[in-house]
Amino acid sequence: MTGTGRISATVPFPTAARRQLADPQLRANLRRATRTIRNRRSQVVDEVTDWEALRAAGAAIKDDVLSRLPELLEEFETRATAAGARVHWARDAAEACAVVTGLVRETGTDEVVKVKSMATQEIGLNEALAEAGITAVETDLAELIVQLAGDTPSHILVPAIHYNRRQIRDILTAGMPEIDASQLTDEPAALAEAARRHLRERFLSAKVAISGANFAVADTGSLVVVESEGNGRMCLTLPDTLISVVGVEKIVPTFADLEVFLQLLPRSATGERMNPYTSIWTGVHPGDGPRDVHIVLLDNGRSDTLADEVGRQALRCIRCSACLNVCPVYEQVGGHAYGSTYPGPIGAILSPQMTGPDNAANRTLPYASTLCGACYDVCPVQIDIPQVLVHLRQVGVDARRDRPSLERVALRAASGLMRDRRRYAMALRAARRGAAPLRLLAGSRGTARRLPWPLSAWTASRDAPLPARQTFREWWAVRASDESAQAAGDPVAGDATHEPGEPR
After folding, report:
1. CATH code at 74?
2. Is 368 within the bounds of a domain?
3. What pTM was estimated for this model as a whole?
4. C-alpha distances in angstroms, 323 versus 186, 292, 372?
5. Which ranges carry the Lactate utilization protein B C-terminal domain (predicted)?
6. Cβ(378)–Cβ(367) under 8 Å?
7. What is the pLDDT of residues 32-82, one digit of tens each?
8. Residue 107 is part of which domain span?
């Protein structure tokens, strides 16, 4: 794990995607799940007559936050501290993991329960706790499935989206020895009940819980978690100590701003009009909830992202995952191909910015898109993901402009040919002669599926059109010749067996 945690891909996207494409069951699972979620979202969004106004309001609030982030963070720290919470600051994943591990050790426990949290996944907290001899138990059903499978999440909202019900049943029976495998069916209610029984004792005995936060309210020092299962509410209220890891961009200025986001988030995320559980807490209250509340404010590349005037809009993200559910690329390859905690279109712009230009694998993520624009259409805070993708591609090209490049050499050679009409004509004739054997293999398609190196880099993922049998200049010369002959009364010009424009 690097200093930025689990947002640094180790394998370039094209290589990782090719592996995932070889799994037809994965694609079937993804297609079924994403279509179900996006259809549900579409229905509940259509009910809201001012949806576009809500999107614009959400974007405006987030842009206001980004324009004065230091000021709002300081206000949040002051309010939260006054309410009895302890606020910690972490520059990167390593610092955040060290802070949380130290806080857990102070309690003397060796097991913690966790609320689903992208921030803790981002920093690799579970692995850091395990190295310190502390077991982290995921209590969200999908996160628990992934944890028992020894896997990593592949979706922001539905971490186990790449599994079907039969696979989930097998995972639960293998990971929960107390379950009678012969009695457990693959019905969702039965699977949920099995997980509930497995977790109940851990909820009641846990001394420490760890969460993230969907929002942090600056003017009250409050944190907000929305969820659908109730496991979050158990973790946030029963243990003595609560530790929340919160990205600095999760700030909203006022409590009233939640009105906008608590309409946008559930509809965009799960296709619900409101979340079944919305938990809001502020500091410590004697006799009610945790006695020790800690908040770890996490940067981990967010300041670098904020510095980019085009790319900073990625920090508006409220982690709804609507962009994943409409993305044609994600639907085919799933989240693991992105190699980061943040998959899909938002991950393709967020991860490269957070890890910086030196991460070679993350540099390929801005190309993991067709630029169809569906992600922008559904984003509840109007992040123009296609614009940022193109911007990051340009940034990547500019960063490597002075380095040797086969592509640059090829383009300079092409430029030299095209500057001279005779050289260009000779090159076209040579290409046509060289393509003759390939034309026989291509048949009626007129395209080559495999070319020798270095052109194989193109045909590895797409067909290459073969040179035309006749250039425009040649066609024009024959046409002019035919017209001259016809004007002179040459009978050959009117030969019915001769196709117009075809060289004799």
Report:
1. 3.40.50.10420
2. no
3. 0.84
4. 29, 37, 12
5. 401-479
6. no
7. 999 999 999 999 999 999 999 999 999 999 999 999 999 999 999 999 999
8. 13-135+206-306
